[in-house]
Each structure stands twice: as C-alpha cells, then as structure tokens.
Amino acid sequence: MSLDQIIENCKIEDAKAQGELYKLFSSKLFSVCLKYSRNRVEAEDNLQDAFLTIFKKIEQYKNKGSFEGWLKRVTINTVLQRYRSEKVFDIVNENIIEDVELEVDEDTVSIDYLLQIIQELPDRYRLVFNLYVLDGYSHKDIADMLNINIGTSKSNLARARQSLKETIEKYKTMQSLQSL
Q: What is the CATH number of the domain that holds 53?
C-alpha cells in the first residue's frame, strides 16, 4: 500500500492503515518526543498521544507539503500542549541574562550524553532550547507556540545554554581527573 493510500485509509479510520502509518513513522516521531520529554517513559506516552491526535486530525492534511513535516508539527504541538497545561512557564523570571556560547567537542562529549543532559534541563529551558537550536524555530515562533513572550524565550535559551555549559565543563573535569 502506498503512503497516499495509507493516508486516505487513515482518513476513514481504517485500523490496518493506522497500524501501517504507526509502523512507518513511530521511530522518527519517537525521536521527536524524546527531545521534548523529560525521560523515555514520558516520551512513549507523548508518542501515543501524538498518534491519537494525528489520527483525529489526519483529514486536515491536504496532500500539500511534506507529510512527514506535518506529522512532526502535530507531534511537537501535542507534546507542547501537555506542558502548557502543566503551566511550566508560569513562574519565569524574565531578566534576560547574557547569551552563552555553547561549543561541544564530539571527542569528549558523546551525543548520547548530550541528549541526556538536555533531557535533564528544566522543562521551560529544554523546550525552548530544542525548538530554537535543534528544530530551528525563531523566538517569535517559540513565543507563539508556548504562549510566552519573546524575552522569556531568549532568557530561557540563554539559561539552558548556561546550564549545559556548566554540566559539560564538570563532565570534562571529571573525565580528565579519571585519566590521571
């Protein structure tokens, strides 16, 4: 069955087509969920919620643009909706701190470790960091998506970078001490 046929069958709530769509895209969308979730279990829950939303809204996809891009946007919005309902942005101090350069040496810090420490960031920092750095959204887009102002987005990004920089520096120090 072609992707177009799978999409059309999902629009009429065909369970077999929904299973095929899940099989085709669950691993890619799980990666998206993992970026925005606190841990693996939460990412699994977010993936399930995302697919429920995808199946409910699939008739809104009009075969224009990338279907995978549409799936990714629905998934990100589903995950962000969970955090909006948890009000993770309510107590944010909007003092903008100086933006920090974050350079990562791939020889010292593995991608797995980097993803782990990103997941450990407070929700408001992790979400803004991922949207801005990993997915390329502007501060205006992020502000609209998270219902915050642009200054809060910039401040949260700077704080995320600062926190990651400190964690990486501690990690490098520990690595160099262990190699002595």
A: 1.10.1740.10
The count of structural domains within the chain is: 2
pTM, entire model: 0.75
Structure tokens at 126: 């992790």
Sort 4 into a burial class: Cβ within 10 Å, 0-12 / 13-18 / 19+. Answer: exposed
**DSSP type of residue 87:** T
Please choose, from the candidates 25, 29, 34, the residue with its C-alpha nearest in 3D space to the C-alpha of residue 3. 25
Asked whether the beta carbons of 108 and 175 are under 8 A apart, the reply is: yes
Summarised one tens digit per residue, pLDDT across range 121-138 is 999 899 999 999 989 999
Same structural domain for residues 77 and 134? no
Q: Give CA–CA dist 76/16, Å, rounded.
A: 25
User: CA torsion 30→32→33→34, rounded to 10°?
Assistant: 90
Residue 93: inside a domain: no
CA-atom Rg of the chain in angstroms: 19
Helix (H, G, I), strand (E, B) or coil at 116: helix
Kindly tell me the sign of the dihedral angle through the C-alpha atoms of 11, 15, 20, 26.
Answer: positive
Q: In the numeric block, which tokens belong to residue 67? A: 């279907």
